[in-house]
Amino acid sequence: QVQLVESGGGLVQAGGSLKLSCSASAPISDIPIMGWYRQRSGEQRILVARMNKSGIRYSPSSMEGRFTMTRDITKNTVYLQMDSLKSEDTAVYYCEAEQRGSISWGQGTQVTVSS
User: Fold this and answer.
1) CB count, 10 Å around CB of 94?
2) Which of 9, 3, 4, 21 is nearest to 69 (CA)?
C-alpha cells in the first residue's frame, strides 16, 4: 500500500486561503485515483475532490469553485488549494489513494477556520 503524508493544515480566518499537500511514497502517475476528503466532528467523511492518473479532476458541486486539486508528478505530491474559507470548512482533511482494489489514507491534517 502507498503511504500518504498530509501537511499544510492550521488555523485560518474566514475568507482566507490554505493549501494542503499530500506526499505519496509511490509514483502518483501510477495511482489510478487520488482524492481529498474531509471529516467534520461527529460527521461522516465526505469527498472534496479527486483526480485520476490522467489528471482529470472531479469535485462535488458543493465543493466546486473554492477547492482545487492539483498535482506535481515530479514530487509525487497532490495538493488541495482552499479559498474563501468558511467556518463550516473546519474539519480534518484526508488524502486518499485507490489502487488495485485497496484504499490508502493519510493521517489527516486539521483545518480550523475562525469566524
Assistant:
1) 21
2) 21
pLDDT, tens digit, 9 for 90 and up, residues 100-110: 889 999 999 99
Burial class (CB in 10 A: 0-12, 13-18, 19+), 30: exposed
- What does the pLDDT read at residue 80? 98
Inter-CA distances, 21 with 5, 61, 75, Å: 8, 22, 11
Place of cell 475532490: 49
Query: 35 with 50: CB under 8 angstroms?
Result: yes
Residue in this structure with the C-alpha cell 494542503, named with its chain if needed: 20
Terminal CA-CA length for the chain: 39
